Amino acid sequence: MSKPTKAELAKYKAILTAQLANLRGDVGSMRDEALRASDQDASVDHLADQGTDNYDQGFMLGLIENEEETIQHIEEALERVAGKGDWEFGVCPQCTEEIENGKKAPKDSKKARSAAKLDPWIPKARLEYLPWARYCLRHQEDEERNRESA
Ligand SMILES: [Zn+2]
């Protein structure tokens, strides 16, 4: 894998910007809907529906939370595309760390050998599908596993 070209960065930026506008619109209208559902709960006529409304509202709020997290990831990716992020766009910071640790490890140790084979660049196919991906697939899975067990 290799560093994204200028043209590729422009393409990722366009996808990120469009997706961000999309999600912001979504979250806005979902929030309106959730608020409307809670207005209804307040009226006596809808007491019977309250159970489902509460369920819908909880479900909706969960969706909003997820989308807000994605929005945050997209904003961070846009900063990386602009060269202002915490790390370079297209690179997996966890792989970078493993490579750095491998360089410090004794030569020819298992750690050094496996780190030498690592490529910190996230595959283009993944970035095209998910330009706001923070990590390579392997480290993304690690991260999700850690979160579940937390
Ligand atoms: Zn990685």
The largest pleated sheet is described as: none
What oligomeric assembly is this protein in?
single chain
Give the structural class: mainly alpha
Order of helices and strands: HHHHHH
Q: Please bin the fraction of helical residues.
A: over 70%
Q: How many domains would you count in the coordinates?
A: 2
- Classify the beta-strand content into a percent band: under 5%
Average predicted confidence as pLDDT: 88
Low-confidence stretches: none
> Would you report the number of β strands?
0
Name the bound molecules: zinc ion
Alpha carbon gyration radius: 21 Å
Termini distance?
A: 32 Å
Number of helices: 6
Shape: elongated
What's the short story on this structure?
This protein has helices at 6-42, 50-81, 93-104, 110-116, 124-129, 137-149. It is mostly helical and 150 residues long.
What does the model show?
The protein is an all-alpha fold. It contains six helices and no strands. The model has no long low-confidence stretch (mean pLDDT 88). The chain has two domains: 1-83; 90-150, no CATH class. 71% of the residues lie in helices and 0% in strands. The longest helix has 37 residues, at 6-42. The two termini are 32 Å apart. It has helices at 6-42, 50-81, 93-104, 110-116, 124-129, 137-149. α1 (6-42) runs antiparallel to α2. The structure holds zinc ion. Zinc ion binds at residues 92, 94-95, 135-136, 138-139.
